[in-house]
Amino acid sequence: MAFKKLMVYGIVTLAMFFWSMTYIWYKVVFEALPPISVMTFRLFFSSVFLFVFSYLIKKLQFPSQKDFYWLLVLSLFQPFLYFLAESYGVSMVSPTIAAVIISTIPMFTPFMAFLFYGHRISVFNVFGILVSFLGVLMVVLGRELHFEGSVTGILLLVGAVGAALGYSVIIVKLANKYSSFTIISWQNLFGACCFLPLFFIFDWNHVSIQDIDRRILLNLIYLAFFGSSLAYVFFTYAIKNIGITKASLFTNTIPVFTAAFAFFIFGETIPVFKIVGIGVLLVGLFIGQSRWNFNGNTIR
Known about the structure:
The protein is mostly helical. It has one domain. Helix content is 77%, strand content 1%. The chain is built from eleven helices and two strands, in the order αααααααααααββ. Strands 1-2 form a two-stranded antiparallel sheet. Strand 1 and strand 2 form a beta hairpin. Helix 2 crosses helix 3, helix 7 crosses helix 9 and helix 8 packs across helix 9.
């Protein structure tokens, strides 16, 4: 049992590692492709891989009619609305700021649990949110207390957080009924179908195959294989085994990973003030979830 739990923790940490890298891969593919094209190709590649692989390993299930409805709603929140807001947001701000804003998702989860599942909101949740918000302000505003990036980009990323919260409510309904491969396969297929009309309307006449060189193609494949396939399968597997609360705690590591990657790959400087801000954010997120009960599991 201890070995299995350790394995789950390792798998969910690997998912966070992949998601952290997506902010780096985004920056590369945006050099040649607009966000809608990136998401369409990313989800199409991911869907093909997941359906073929899931079928071969006999993990692909056909959901009931009722659950097909929930899968459609799930896909609307994420990947469609989430990726639409996130990809445009990432194109306007630095990878570190994007990762910090996205990492605030767990601190709002208690309110979603209260609204949809009737779970109690504790003083720890409120205090943790306030502390985390201070950390976000430190990173986004900097020592000079002004926005370091596009306000529109930041608002889009906040919208992505909202979409992720809607996703977290619905995924709990499905995670105990279907395999991780089944959920993510259908989710990404429906997501690709949502993006396809936007691609033909806005990007079809602006995308040139000649602009997609080997470097761009590789990073697009990384987004599809690691970011949209393995990371989501791993995270859903973790939800099934340790619950949404404990799994969400690991997203607190995303801004740390991303800040390190941005420094080594892009040479993005990380002032001490921002490092302290990331630390404050992580402390606040931990406090906010330290005594929250979800599905009978208490984190202490």
